[in-house]
């Protein structure tokens, strides 16, 4: 039996704030790091000692250095732990894969947390129209809003326009209490939440009053030409093909458009085709338009969210296979009866 080579390594933290960011409140993050590491960890003051088999110590040291690099770049590590551990085992670095683009100043020191998010931001930076398609929790809307705020602050655009279709789910608009604004606010709340995260309340309210930021239902876009604007269409899977065409043709000069949606969460009636699905089919090869597809590996909510999405994807694939098998059996039965 081959004898293991045991070794140790140490890492020094710069200050107590760095230790808190790495370990978490009550060492909750440190316990998760220990679970993901292939060596033993002990933390005393500003020193972390790593011990164990040589390869495990090397991988764990790379893992911790990767997390510290993310912290020192202003990022949060909680949602990056599993991905960073996996990359470190392959000799790769998450901090390098998700490094902010040069010249891009996102609000609140925000940074992408996955390579897919980095590629999404790069696509927005390079193209006039970008479709961000993928499951919930991948940051497709939040990052688009961040890019819009960054563009406004850099004076690349004069206003931000955020819109989404007011698709009814259980309650009809006419039966909801309040005036028109009160009726549509629940549909637009996720967009408001993202903006409140990135702007001071007084500044946000001022932008709203002055028309620098506009949050409105998709129906309000009809008949307009939107120049010098960063325009985001959220929940685009719930547009009809006609609504999608109407929206895309509102784009004016010096504007940028980001369309986000999840084709697995369509709330339209069964006989209505999703405008997002049609756009994905018709606009793939047009210069200046980019399609970015997120996967469950880009989910930055609780780790269970990614597993839930994957389980549903597997179930959907199995159901499609069963339907295809039944279709073939019907065709074979029809051929035999002839």
From TrEMBL:
<dbReference type="InterPro" id="IPR027417">
    <property type="entry name" value="P-loop_NTPase"/>
</dbReference>
<feature type="region of interest" description="Disordered">
    <location>
        <begin position="319"/>
        <end position="338"/>
    </location>
</feature>
<keyword id="KW-0547">Nucleotide-binding</keyword>
<dbReference type="Pfam" id="PF02562">
    <property type="entry name" value="PhoH"/>
</dbReference>
<feature type="region of interest" description="Disordered">
    <location>
        <begin position="91"/>
        <end position="110"/>
    </location>
</feature>
<keyword id="KW-0067">ATP-binding</keyword>
<protein>
    <recommendedName>
        <fullName>PhoH-like protein</fullName>
    </recommendedName>
</protein>
<dbReference type="InterPro" id="IPR003714">
    <property type="entry name" value="PhoH"/>
</dbReference>
<comment type="similarity">
    <text>Belongs to the PhoH family.</text>
</comment>
<feature type="domain" description="PhoH-like protein">
    <location>
        <begin position="110"/>
        <end position="313"/>
    </location>
</feature>
<dbReference type="GO" id="GO:0005524">
    <property type="term" value="F:ATP binding"/>
</dbReference>
<keyword id="KW-0963">Cytoplasm</keyword>
<feature type="compositionally biased region" description="Basic and acidic residues">
    <location>
        <begin position="320"/>
        <end position="338"/>
    </location>
</feature>
<dbReference type="GO" id="GO:0005829">
    <property type="term" value="C:cytosol"/>
</dbReference>
<dbReference type="InterPro" id="IPR051451">
    <property type="entry name" value="PhoH2-like"/>
</dbReference>
């Amino acid at each position: 039996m081959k004898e293991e080579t045991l070794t140790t390594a140490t890492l020094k933290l710069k200050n107590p704030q760095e230790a808190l960011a790495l370990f978490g409140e009550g060492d909750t993050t440190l316990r998760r790091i220990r679970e993901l590491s292939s060596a033993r960890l002990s933390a005393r003051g500003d020193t972390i000692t790593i011990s164990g088999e040589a390869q495990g110590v090397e991988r764990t040291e790379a893992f911790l250095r990767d997390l510290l690099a993310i912290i020192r770049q202003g990022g949060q590590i909680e949602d990056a732990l599993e991905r960073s551990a996996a990359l470190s085992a392959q000799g790769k670095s998450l901090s390098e894969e998700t490094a902010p683009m040069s010249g891009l100043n996102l609000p609140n020191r925000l940074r992408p947390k996955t390579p897919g998010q980095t590629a999404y931001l790069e696509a927005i930076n390079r193209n006039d129209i970008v479709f961000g398609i993928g499951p919930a929790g991948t940051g497709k809307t939040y990052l688009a809003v961040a890019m819009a705020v960054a563009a406004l602050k850099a004076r690349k655009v004069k206003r931000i326009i955020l819109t989404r279709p007011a698709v009814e789910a259980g309650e009809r608009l006419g039966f909801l209490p309040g005036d028109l604004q009160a009726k549509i606010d629940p549909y637009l709340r996720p967009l408001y939440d993202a903006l409140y995260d990135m702007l001071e309340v007084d500044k946000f309210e001022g932008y709203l009053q002055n028309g620098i930021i506009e949050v409105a239902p998709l129906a309000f876009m009809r008949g307009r030409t939107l120049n010098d604007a960063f325009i985001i269409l959220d929940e685009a899977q719930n547009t009809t093909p006609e609504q999608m065409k109407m929206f895309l043709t509102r784009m004016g000069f010096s504007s940028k458009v980001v369309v986000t949606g999840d084709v697995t969460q369509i709330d339209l009636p069964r006989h209505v085709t999703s405008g997002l699905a049609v756009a994905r089919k018709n606009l793939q090869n047009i210069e200046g338009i980019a399609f970015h597809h997120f996967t469950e590996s880009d989910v930055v909510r609780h780790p269970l969210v990614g597993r839930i999405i994957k389980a549903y994807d597997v179930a959907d694939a199995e159901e499609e296979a069963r339907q295809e098998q039944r279709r073939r059996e019907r065709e074979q039965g029809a051929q035999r009866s002839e």
